[in-house]
Amino acid sequence: MIEPTSRDNPKLIELIKVLLDWINDELADHRIIVKDIEEDLFDGQILQKLIEKLCNVRVEAREVTQSEIGQKQKLRVVLDYINHILGVSPVWSQQKWSVDSVHSKNLVAILHLLVALARHFHAPIRMPDNVVVTLIVIQKIDNSLQTRYVPEEITTNWDDVDGRGERDAFDTLFDHAPDKLNVVKKTLLTFVNKYLMKLNLEITDLDNQFHDGVFLIMLMGLLEGYFTPLYQFHVTPTTFDHRVHNVKFAFELMEDAGLMKPKARPEDIVNQDLKSTLRVLYNIFTKYKSSHGSQAVPVQ
């Protein structure tokens, strides 16, 4: 349960308003107006319309029903489809936005879900960063109830990277200079392969070969001159959580090497967001290009 004063947090109030405006913009053609995130989204009906609009598909779910069982069945179908689109693991989604938590009108669960959708579909919005709510956790220990206050992060300082926040050179490349973008990709590809080939590894596709974090970890080791023990990461990651762990670990190695903290989110890399991947690789390139004799990348 949310600590009552957390609901008065101006950033939380702003986040809810921004998400409501986004949903209503997306569903304007359906003449649907969402006024309350908790009361209007819990049964899956609006969520179904939203994901159908975002993906331009038809999700086969039962019609509107007033029974709790029917609502949960519909909600499960919708959430399963959303989880598939987002590429998240069952464990992750169960922790963040389970059927029971969304149906019980859990504000934190619903916000986690909407923020994930907004990130994935690059919603043209600017979400407030570092939105944190305090949760009240009550546990029974030794026949007595004990209360803990736990902070829950809803957004980070990465969440407006692709929204109406500050744009960078990669936004311009993607929007207006596809030819120059291809030159950048080719230059970065040459750079990473120069080092990965020392391990008889080769990247042929920047779009998806970095998404599990393994090549990022190996690249940092090669550039910094160390071997990363295999027990520190998942060499053959098979789940979304394994890949997120690897990318987070790679980001830590980058910061340890003196690079700026990546603007991209680990989940964006795992979801094969090319713009985020290029930002990370360019960050690496700018640090090592002069010391390793590489040509400049024409990003500007």
TrEMBL record:
GO biological process: actin cytoskeleton organization; cell projection assembly; establishment or maintenance of cell polarity regulating cell shape; substrate adhesion-dependent cell spreading
Superkingdom classification of source: Eukaryota
Coiled coil location: none
Every Calponin-homology (CH) domain range: 13-122, 182-289
One Pfam match: CH
Gene3D superfamilies: Calponin-like domain
PROSITE patterns: CH
Location within or outside the cell: Cytoplasm, Cytoskeleton; Cytoplasm, Myofibril, Sarcomere
Alphabetized PANTHER family for the sequence: GH23568P, PARVIN
Name of the protein described by the UniProt record: Calponin-homology (CH) domain-containing protein
Organism this protein belongs to: Biomphalaria glabrata
Source organism phylogeny: Eukaryota, Metazoa, Spiralia, Lophotrochozoa, Mollusca
